[in-house]
Amino acid sequence: MNKLCPMPGCSVERITRDGPDFLHVAAHGTRPGSRCPDCGRASRAVHSRYRRRPVDLPSLGRALRIDLRVRRFYCHNAACARHTFAERLPELLRPHARRTRRLAEAQGRVGVALGGEGGARLLQHLSMPASADTVLRLVRGLPLPEQEPPHVVGVDDWALRKGRTYGTILVDLERHRVLDLLPDRTAETLADWLRCQPQVAVAARDRSTEYARGIALGAPGARQVADRWHLLANMRQVLERWLAGAHARLRHLPPGPGASADARPGSRTRPFRRTRGPKGRPVSAAGRGGSRSTRRSGGGTPRARSCSRSAGR
User: Rounded to an integer, what distance in angstroms lies between the CA atom of residue 59 and that of residue 24?
Assistant: First the structure.
């Protein structure tokens, strides 16, 4: 039975099915005694027993709940404030926890991949239901991964509240991961952080003299470079200022040879507008005023023009 449903520090008594979607596993602790969590003194004297019902990983597509019988022991240390304490099962679940460690880790990993709302929707189909807030809480409880010491770091400011409160963000540029968030952007705070990272060889920063001083104080052997984003941003700003000044200077240049007075730099000329005449032929805007009368009298055709000349004679 223990091989089918392994539980560290516990012995499985029976497995029963409660409806089509639930399994109940009855188990009890197998260790002869336990240690007081306050004074650390071992005890085997059983005071009483009570039941805990944590949720475990699903089995065969069914949600699994453990009916765990836990013992309470006497603490024989007279100087200890505890008189009784419950046995600990650290490999299986935490004190006062309502889910086992392995279930909490699985739900937390889903939350890391999908977030709170998305993780909660997926866990509902995996027979591990949890609310979005619970998924986020389990994500915060996961241990942080071990990171290698950074050698190339990027330093920049970040806004906790834009326009009012700013801090410093440090990024591992080789692994593209955030290393730390500092509460302010002073040289002393940055220098204190860099003193704890003596392996830093390159520090990329903006044009801030405060960051330059902080890097020089905390990591004097590190090479300071300007990061690519700030180089491109500075180049764009210089180009925009130059183009704005050049455009203003072009307005005051004299017109070139053969240019009319209206064709000066910066002046706007009305374009030659054309409209569509009869049968789709283009008609210039210069003759647009008399086009309506000529169409009415038929003067637009060669025959009409010859008749008008003979009538004038």
Answer: 11
User: Residue 191 is encoded by which pair of tokens?
Assistant: 């220098």
- For residue 295, the Cα-to-chain-centroid distance in whole angstroms is 70
Quick one: tokens of 133? 């807030």
Q: Tell me the three state secondary structure of residue 99.
A: strand
Task: Report which secondary-structure segment, H or E, holds 246.
Answer: helix 228-250
Helices (H) and strands (E) in the chain, counts: 7, 15
Q: How many CA atoms lie within 13 A of 203 on its CB side?
A: 30
By CB atoms closer than 10 A (0-12, 13-18, 19+), residue 150 is buried
Q: Rounded to the nearest 5 degrees, what angle is found at the Cα of 46, between the Cα atoms of 44 and 51?
A: 125
From first to last of its 313 residues, the chain has per-residue pLDDT tens of: 666 678 888 888 888 888 888 888 999 988 888 999 999 999 999 999 999 999 999 988 889 999 999 999 999 998 999 899 999 988 899 988 999 999 999 999 999 999 999 999 999 999 999 999 999 999 999 988 788 899 999 999 989 888 888 999 999 999 988 999 999 999 999 999 999 999 999 999 988 889 999 999 999 999 999 888 888 888 998 999 888 888 877 777 777 676 555 555 555 555 545 555 555 555 544 444 444 444 444 455 555 455 455 555 5
Please choose, from the candidates 28, 31, 33, the residue with its C-alpha nearest in 3D space to the C-alpha of residue 74.
33
Alpha carbon distance 73, 154 (integer Å) = 55
Q: Which of 151, 242, 253, 261 is nearest to 203 (CA)?
A: 151
CA–CA separation, 299 vs 209, rounded Å? 81
Tokens 């409880």 belong to 141
The answer to whether the CB of 33 falls within 8 A of the CB of 42 is: yes
The answer to whether 52 and 70 are in contact (CB under 8 A) is yes
CB contact at 8 A, 26 and 14? yes
Q: How far apart are CA 129 and CA 94, in angstroms?
A: 19
